[in-house]
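Example for tutorial group B:
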């Protein structure tokens, strides 16, 4: 039986594989922007653009949501405003949880 390294390195076995798709950074960012502004699920956006859902999740982790400047333009539609409020609430919950964890950690470390 071949080891994992030997199986993946065997050129005869790789001939039947499809070439790996590559995407430009511009494409990745435009897909992420569409996902964030459309209100669709990740699976819907991935299917719409013909990509895998894990690519979309990796790109989100890689490029993240770019913070909008405080003095940036306000959303023009009520839907865009509610979407932004929803995103801000998610971010606030995440940051609050991180802060609470750090507080508890500092309390534990200062006791020892």
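The residue assignment follows.
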């Amino acid at each position: 039986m071949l080891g994992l390294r030997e199986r993946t390195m065997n050129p005869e076995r790789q001939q039947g594989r499809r070439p790996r798709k590559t995407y430009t950074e511009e494409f990745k960012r435009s897909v992420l922007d569409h996902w964030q502004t459309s209100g669709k699920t990740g699976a819907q956006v991935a299917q719409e653009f013909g990509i895998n859902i894990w690519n979309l999740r990796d790109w989100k982790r890689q490029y993240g949501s770019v913070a909008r400047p405080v003095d940036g333009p306000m959303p023009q539609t009520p839907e865009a405003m509610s979407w932004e409020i929803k995103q801000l609430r998610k971010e606030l919950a995440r940051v609050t949880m991180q802060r609470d964890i750090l507080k508890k950690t500092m309390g534990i470390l200062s006791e020892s």
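Residues 78-111 form the longest helix (34 residues). Compare this with the pattern of hydrophobic and polar residues in the output above.
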